Each structure stands twice: as structure tokens, then as C-alpha cells.
């Protein structure tokens, strides 16, 4: 009788995400007019257009924008589907955030370019951080946070979840993130947890928000996913598989290369249905340099 492949004990497997080399690569979402959004992000937010690609046979185009090169920085990946000019953002997606040294100046610039400010700059309720909120042409909200110089100005993706403790546990176990900050605001009936791979002011974090008593949200069809790098998509998928059995969620794409690109990925949904794609580190860099 043939010997079965050795089974990695689950506690050993769960150590893998903590040792793995991970960072946030990009956040993917859909827009109704690529050029309009590129113009807004470059003029109002100071992002750079890093690359653009058109896939006519699949009837879509992408643009990648950010504050630094894709090799080192978190970027937005905008998707334009031919002929679709409007999307439903849903009630679950919250906002993106940009750290800037002068929120007041950024707000002035956005307003001068015709952008919409939905919250004037000023300190947060009961705190010292100075923030403002702006809306992009598709209705996505950006929180503008006043902060000293940072290597990662594109610093947050905020998603609403139905059970904060479950989500914290999921992102810790499945993705090896650490909770860098937790805030409970009973007077406003919400709690938040910042999840990431380094301290909040140094990197990008997922801001998970729980509104008291709300367990479900609509996803809409606008926001798609975040992509995170890994040194081994197969091992990472095994971990996710294990964690989904305990906490919910599911793998939506088994690990392996994408046809035509050969970049190895795996994708999955968390217990609230938010999607994450894990991308092989080396393949990602090869793909970037191929497009140059």
C-alpha cells in the first residue's frame, strides 16, 4: 500500500503566516471612467499613474496608481469594464485613507479641482488626530489623515464586519496580521480594529469596523478585493482552508498559476464575504518587470 503524504500538523501550519514575507500589494475596485479617476487621483491626491493596461479581448482596462513603486508600495488597481459607467458601492465598504502632512492644504486643493469634501478638516471627536473626508467621482470615500512623513501614504482600507472578534481572529490566523490598535466607542455604538503587518503610521492597515447590532451588509459590485504577497501560495492556502473551517469564509480559487500569466495566486472570502487574493512574491515581481 502506498504511503500517504506526510500531513503537516495544524499548529505547525498556523505558524507559517507569521514567518511568511507578506505585505499589502494593491486594492482592486471598479470605476466608471478610468481617465476621470486618474485625473482626480493625480491632481487632488498627488498619486502617480504607475501603469495602465488594456485587455480588449476581455473588455476591460486597468490603471495602477500610488505614492511609490509597486515593488515597495501599496497601490490602487482601478478596473474599467467597457460600457459600464456606474457601480453600487454597497453598505459594507467604508473608505480608503491617505496620510498627508497637511490635511487643510489637501482639502483646499481637492476643493479647487471640483472635488467634494464630505467632512471639513478638524480633530476627531474626543481625540487629537486631524482628519477630513473627500469623495471621488465614483462615490468612494477617502479619509485624509494628518500625519508626519510616512513611507506609506495610502494607509487604510476600511471594511465593515458583523463580528469583530471573529474577524480579528480570522485575519490573525489566516493572514498572519497583528492587531495594531483596537478602539471601542460605546457612545457612538461602534468598535474598530486596525489589522496589519507593522505599526499603523508605517504601513497600510485594514480597518475593520463593527457597528453595534449590525451583523450583515450589502457588498455592492464596486469594491473587489485586496491583494497580499506570500512566499508560498500553496502553504498559505492550506492555512486559510484550516481557518475557514473554524471561523467561516471559503477559498474561491485553489492555489496555482493564472493561465497566460503564470503568476501563482489563491483567493478566498473572509467570514463576512470580503475577498483577499494571495500572490506569489517572485511571480509578482517578474510580472511587473515584464510589463516595463
From TrEMBL:
Its EC number is 4.4.1.5. Its cofactor is Zn(2+). Transmembrane segments: none annotated. Pathway: Secondary metabolite metabolism; methylglyoxal degradation; (R)-lactate from methylglyoxal: step 1/2. Residues 23-147, 153-281 form the VOC domain. Pfam families: Glyoxalase (PF00903). The keyword Disulfide bond does not apply. CDD domains: GlxI_Ni. It is an enzyme of class 4 (lyase). Catalyzes the conversion of hemimercaptal, formed from methylglyoxal and glutathione, to S-lactoylglutathione. Belongs to the glyoxalase I family. This is Lactoylglutathione lyase. It comes from Vitis vinifera (Grape).
Amino acid at each position: 500500500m502506498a504511503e500517504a503524504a506526510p500531513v503537516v500538523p495544524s499548529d505547525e501550519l498556523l505558524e507559517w503566516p507569521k514567518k511568511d514575507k507578506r505585505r499589502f500589494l494593491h486594492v482592486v475596485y471598479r470605476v466608471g471612467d478610468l481617465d476621470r479617476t486618474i485625473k482626480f487621483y493625480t491632481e487632488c491626491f498627488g498619486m502617480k499613474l504607475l501603469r495602465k493596461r488594456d485587455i480588449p479581448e476581455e473588455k476591460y482596462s486597468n490603471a495602477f496608481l500610488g505614492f511609490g513603486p509597486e515593488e515597495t508600495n501599496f497601490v490602487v488597481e482601478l478596473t474599467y469594464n467597457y460600457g459600464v459607467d456606474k457601480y453600487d458601492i454597497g453598505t459594507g465598504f467604508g473608505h480608503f485613507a491617505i496620510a498627508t502632512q497637511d490635511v487643510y492644504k489637501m482639502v483646499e486643493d481637492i476643493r479647487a479641482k471640483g472635488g467634494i469634501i464630505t467632512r471639513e478638516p478638524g480633530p476627531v471627536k474626543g481625540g487629537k488626530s486631524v482628519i477630513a473626508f473627500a469623495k471621488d467621482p465614483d462615490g468612494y470615500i477617502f479619509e485624509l489623515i494628518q500625519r508626519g512623513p510616512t513611507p506609506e501614504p495610502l494607509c487604510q482600507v476600511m471594511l465593515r464586519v458583523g463580528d469583530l472578534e471573529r474577524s480579528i481572529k480570522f485575519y490573525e490566523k489566516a493572514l498572519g496580521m497583528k492587531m495594531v490598535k483596537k478602539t471601542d466607542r460605546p457612545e457612538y455604538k461602534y468598535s474598530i480594529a486596525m489589522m496589519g503587518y507593522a505599526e499603523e503610521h508605517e504601513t497600510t492597515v485594514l480597518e475593520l469596523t463593527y457597528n453595534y447590532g449590525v451583523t450583515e451588509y450589502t457588498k455592492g459590485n464596486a469594491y473587489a478585493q485586496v491583494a497580499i504577497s506570500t512566499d508560498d501560495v500553496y502553504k498559505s492556502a492550506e492555512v486559510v482552508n484550516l481557518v475557514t473551517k473554524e471561523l467561516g469564509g471559503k477559498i474561491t480559487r485553489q492555489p496555482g498559476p493564472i493561465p497566460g500569466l503564470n503568476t501563482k495566486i489563491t483567493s478566498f472570502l473572509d467570514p463576512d464575504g470580503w475577498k483577499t487574493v494571495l500572490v506569489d512574491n517572485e511571480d509578482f515581481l517578474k510580472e511587473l518587470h515584464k510589463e516595463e
